[in-house]
Amino acid sequence: MKKILFVCHGNICRSPMAEFVMRELVRRAGLAEEIAVESKACRTDEIGSDTHPGTQRVLRANGIPFSRREAGQITGADYGAYDVIVAMDSENMRDLMRLTGNDPQKTCHLLMSFAGERRDVADPWYTGDFDATYRDVLRGCRALLDKIRSMR
């Protein structure tokens, strides 16, 4: 089974959005038995918090199922446990590089890099624009799923 971990700053906006979007894309592709998806935080700010209401709103509006969850933090042990670790922005990547000793296994990637773009997914915690974040997350997750499919 291929295991994917999405990470962002607090694990309440972008990474859970990506987790739920990717799970739904995987389910629709009939690959739920082959691909596991989770999300965690790089920082401790929101540990234990549920998904942000703005993320819940945009998921609901786009027909993406989600459930109650609690934000958790990535650990060094997670590095070996996941095949792909996907960061939402360059700050998250810096955190991952510190945590993993510069990613010797080359498992850490920016989400938008899968869509051929070297840029961050804007943090709706600061922008308030959950719809723009959703568009980026959907684009990146679709591209990631396409890449996984092409490697099967």
UniProtKB/TrEMBL annotation:
Residues 2-147 form the Phosphotyrosine protein phosphatase I domain. It catalyses: O-phospho-L-tyrosyl-[protein] + H2O = L-tyrosyl-[protein] + phosphate. It comes from the Bacteria. The active site is at C8 (nucleophile), R14, D123 (proton donor). CDD domains: LMWPTP. Its EC number is 3.1.3.48. The keyword Aminoacyl-tRNA synthetase does not apply. Keywords: Hydrolase, Protein phosphatase. InterPro entries: LMW_PTPase, Ptyr_pPase, Ptyr_pPase_sf, Tyr_phospatase_low_mol_wt. Pfam families: LMWPc. It is an enzyme of class 3 (hydrolase). GO terms for molecular function: protein tyrosine phosphatase activity. Belongs to the low molecular weight phosphotyrosine protein phosphatase family. This is protein-tyrosine-phosphatase. The lineage of its organism: Bacteria, Bacillati, Bacillota, Negativicutes, Selenomonadales.
